[in-house]
């Protein structure tokens, strides 16, 4: 297996491995280390089903199931379908494009570590792929913050709320999403995390706030919190921090939620079919120093 960095601010390509087969410890370790270093790794020309995607993904940590079990595999409920395709008048998956910038699972008490997606169908127009995914590098965004802000907010915390994102989607023209029920809200209550995280693989400082879910910097007055978050959101989304992955059918894309934001581009129509299957992995292992030490030791 080879992991070759892109000529961008982030991202790499992994080759020489079949991810449908059990992953040797040394290959897992190199992928694990590569996620900390590159943020996003694409493995092209793969062939996975729900079972093998789950098997690969759970090496990195526990897997989240969807709220209400929507669009999940009947045998492997940890595997969700993302798609704009419709059959007999029913959507085949959750439409994920056009949801704006966010970090999956920052709304959980246990945040997310990685997303793993397998491209089943990729829309094309005039021979060019559509529906790319844009990433932003939160280590670079933190590094470039004003030093006085780093110092003043060094111990600050931020509240993240799933309902913020849900309501933003409901407000979009044509949306049919109902409001979250009391039961659903109870299952996804607001969560509080450090505004600046230390990445458990690299030790780098990370800006951990995103427009999708971040609601409030708790140590600041409400008006100042809103002003600082507005600054941070604009700062972290500068083009110089961004990298776009252009999908090809058969890609397995894995990315690090801790050090990145992402945004799926809705540049395709309903007759231009896109389908992915996905696992979302909790950060329930990666913050364990013994787990990290073992993984990085196998990569040495």
UniProtKB/TrEMBL annotation:
Domain TauD/TfdA-like: 6-279
Keyword vocabulary terms for this entry: Dioxygenase, Iron, Metal-binding, Oxidoreductase
Region called Disordered, residue ranges: 172-194
One Gene Ontology term of the molecular function aspect: metal ion binding
InterPro entries: TauD-like_sf, TauD/TfdA-like, TfdA_dioxygenase
Gene3D superfamilies according to UniProt: Clavaminate synthase-like
Keyword Phosphoprotein: no
Keyword Metal-binding: yes
One Pfam family per UniProt: TauD
Family: Belongs to the TfdA dioxygenase family.
PANTHER family reported in the protein's UniProt record: (3R)-3-[(CARBOXYMETHYL)AMINO]FATTY ACID OXYGENASE_DECARBOXYLASE (PTHR43779:SF3), DIOXYGENASE RV0097-RELATED (PTHR43779)
Protein's UniProt name: Taurine dioxygenase
């Amino acid at each position: 297996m080879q992991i070759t960095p892109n000529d961008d601010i982030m991202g790499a390509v992994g080759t020489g491995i079949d991810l449908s087969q059990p992953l040797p410890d040394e290959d897992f370790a190199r992928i694990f280390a590569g996620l900390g270093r590159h943020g996003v790794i694409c493995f092209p020309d793969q062939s996975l089903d729900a079972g093998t995607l789950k098997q690969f993904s759970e090496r990195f940590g526990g897997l989240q199931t969807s709220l209400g079990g929507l669009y999940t595999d009947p045998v492997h409920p940890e595997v969700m379908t993302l798609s704009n395709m419709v059959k007999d008048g029913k959507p085949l998956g959750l439409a994920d494009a056009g949801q704006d910038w966010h970090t999956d699972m920052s709304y959980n008490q246990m945040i997310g570590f990685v997303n793993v997606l397998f491209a089943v169908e990729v829309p094309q127009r005039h021979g060019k792929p559509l529906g790319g995914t844009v990433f932003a590098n939160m280590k670079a965004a933190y590094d470039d913050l004003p030093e006085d802000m780093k110092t003043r907010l060094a111990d600050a915390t931020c509240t993240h709320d799933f309902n913020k994102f849900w309501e933003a989607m409901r407000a979009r023209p044509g949306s049919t999403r109902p409001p979250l029920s009391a039961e659903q809200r109870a299952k996804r209550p607001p969560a509080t995390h450090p505004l600046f995280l230390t990445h458990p693989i690299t030790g780098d400082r990370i800006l951990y706030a995103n427009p999708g879910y971040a609601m409030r910097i708790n140590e600041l007055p409400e008006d100042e919190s809103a002003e600082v978050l507005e600054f941070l959101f604009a700062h972290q989304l500068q083009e110089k921090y961004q990298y776009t992955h252009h999908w090809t059918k058969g890609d397995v894309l894995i990315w690090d939620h801790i050090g990145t934001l992402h945004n799926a581009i809705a540049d395709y129509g309903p007759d231009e079919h896109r389908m992915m299957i996905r696992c979302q992995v909790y950060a329930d292992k990666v913050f364990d120093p013994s787990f990290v030490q073992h993984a990085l030791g196998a990569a040495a």
